[in-house]
Amino acid sequence: MSRNKSYWFGVTIYFLVSCHPFINTFASPTQSLCRNDQRDALLELKEELSIHSRNSAPVPTISWNKRVDCCSWKGVKCNAISGEVISLKLGDPSTTNSSLKSSSGLFKLQNLLHLDLSSLGLQGEIPSSIGNLSHLTYLDLSFNQLVGEVPASIGNLNQLGYMDLSCNDLRGNIPTSFANLSKLSQLEIFENQFTGGLVVLANLTNLSEIDLNSNHVKSSFPSFLLMISSLVEIHLDENQFEGTLDFGNTSSSSKLGVLTVGDNNFDGLVPESIGKLHNLNSLDLSQNNFRGRVPRSIWKLRHLNSLDLSHNNFIGRVPRSISKLVNLNSIDLSYNKFEGQIPHHFWRPSQVGSGHVMLSHNSFTGFGKPVEIIDGTTLEQLDLGSNSLQGTFPQWMCKFGSLVNLDLSNNHFSGSIPQCLKNLTHLGMLNLRNNSLSGFLPDFDGFELESLDVSHNNLKGKLPKSLINCWFLEFLNVKGNKINDTFPFWLGSVQYLNVLMLGSNAFYGPVYNPSTYVGFPNLQIIDISNNNFVGSLPQDYFSNWRVMSLVWKETVPERNYMGLLASYSMDMVYHGADTDFDRIFRNFKAIDFSGNRLSGHIPTSIGLLSEMRFFNLSDNTFTGNIPPSLANITKLEILDLSRNNLSGEIPQGLGNLSFLSYINFSHNHLEGLVPRSTQFGTQTCSSFMDNNGLYGLEEICGKHHVPVPTAQQQPDESLLEPEEPVLNWIAAAIAFGPGVFCGLVIGHIFTSYKHEWFYSS
Questions:
Q1: Domains in the chain, start-ordered, CATH in brackets?
Q2: Could you give the 3-state DSSP secondary structure of residue 632?
Q3: End-to-end CA gap in the chain
Q4: Cα–Cα distance measured from residue 446 to residue 458, given in angstroms and rounded to the nearest whole number
Q5: Within a 10 A sphere around the Cβ of 698, how many other Cβ atoms?
Q6: Which pLDDT belongs to residue 350?
């Protein structure tokens, strides 16, 4: 019996000793206090980070207190038996703007296994002392401001399985000491300034993922990476790789599932050997210089669900072999030279799934035989823009009930827009720009539209008031049609509307109605040019156009960052010529009221729109002086007031607008001295012609084309100083008041008493 007890006692001791690491892993940190040396090292690190933080102590370490066991501090984990710190996570959106020194307390925590200092605002170089943390299995220094080369000592971290140095400013070659990181499985070094040194990665035989996109690596394709049997993902996009795509002796047993080499300088033909990468599910060859035909062997990539060949020089018809890619749910062939019919297999339910078909900017001519959509086919994004497609609007597209984005722009479609579009209730973007569509705009009630572009067609009738129910509408472009309607004051209540393009239609009537006008608080671009609008504008007309006076980061509501608008296009008269804008920059703010019959004085409240870049009132019948408040629009680049009945002098303050690149005051009744500035001096003489009272144009027009000023035209010294803007606090109150109701009430007061306060100011 005694012998039996001894036996079980021995077994118990052996079990406890054997499970020591297991116990360390799962025991609670509260079972033992951290060691004093570990606590002191952490407090030393806290002091280092606090020195440069904005609030005297950064958020991650603010709770670190000597009176509390350091193993319970935020971001700290300890070995429950030894009390050694084994994990440290300090990443936080609030930056410290600090740097790590070689003597940092961090490097005294030599038993660390897990270190995460991401998003901490760290600056300076990575200290060579990082190599002291030789037990690390996980290292994350991403999203900081680290600079310089990665120290060679990082090769001492031969237990690392994960390393992330992405989103910094690290440069130079990848250190040769990386070859020591034999256990590394995932390497993230994207968005830095690395230039080379990839060959050392050939030794990382356990690597499963490498991401070095958005660097400056200039090299041929590193085919040796394909020899690493464990590699599943390779991301090389946005670098300077060049030459042909050579897959070397790639094995057909490769586990590679993701290969992205987009936005480089590769050229030549895509080799047939790509068919050996049987396990690929995502392939991105976009934005290179590949040419010729798509390799026939692509049909062997049976697992492929995403294929991006856009922005290259591929030619010919889409190969039938793509029809065998039955798992494909996203395909982008845009910006190539494909031609012929669009293959029917793009519309199969098993083929498309709920993905994207992007075929724009090619030479496709049609869809072949009538397309039949099988029930269950779902598609979120369909882009067929800028091809040679013709015929009536393809009504079979109305069966894609989950469609979010539909782009048929820049084709030759004719006929009416079908009412069946009402089935596409999830539609967020509809672009039918530049076709030959006719008839009326359909009802858009119940849609989730964010963007509607039907510009440059032959549409007629009225603007459908159901658009007022498209709560998220940001972009509305009906320019270049035959729409016959009054000004849509009701659109002022669409709170996210940023761009309103009504130009070159048959709109008519006033653009101001005191009973319905509330302004356009969130409008950034408006074009009502070349219509039949009439009437005058009150002096406070622009007072409530608040987004025009805010820099982009202050733009309200917060939802509007012009991020979506960057993918929209429009055309305006810019620098005196019709100009296409392929993208709308978030800071571009413009007003074009030209080519109407608007009259009266230019509202002085225009000076409140301090962030406006483009202002065109040409070809109207405005009278009176040019408001000096225009000088408050310090970002103004384009100013066109030509072909009106303006009189008086050009305000001298306009000479201080340093961004002005195009000015046109021609065909008015202006007089006096033209402002002397670089911006005015670089204009052509035609910008001032047919204003017989102007002088000071010798350097612009030459002496033989300048009228001699009479005694009455000699400059008054007082007129050479820029006048104060004739703006009233009432107008400012309207612009930034708490709500529409207050704006209307104060606006009524303003209208009643404007003559008295305007001239008394």
A1: 1-87+107-112 (no CATH), 474-723 (3.80.10.10)
A2: helix
A3: 112
A4: 25
A5: 12
A6: 53
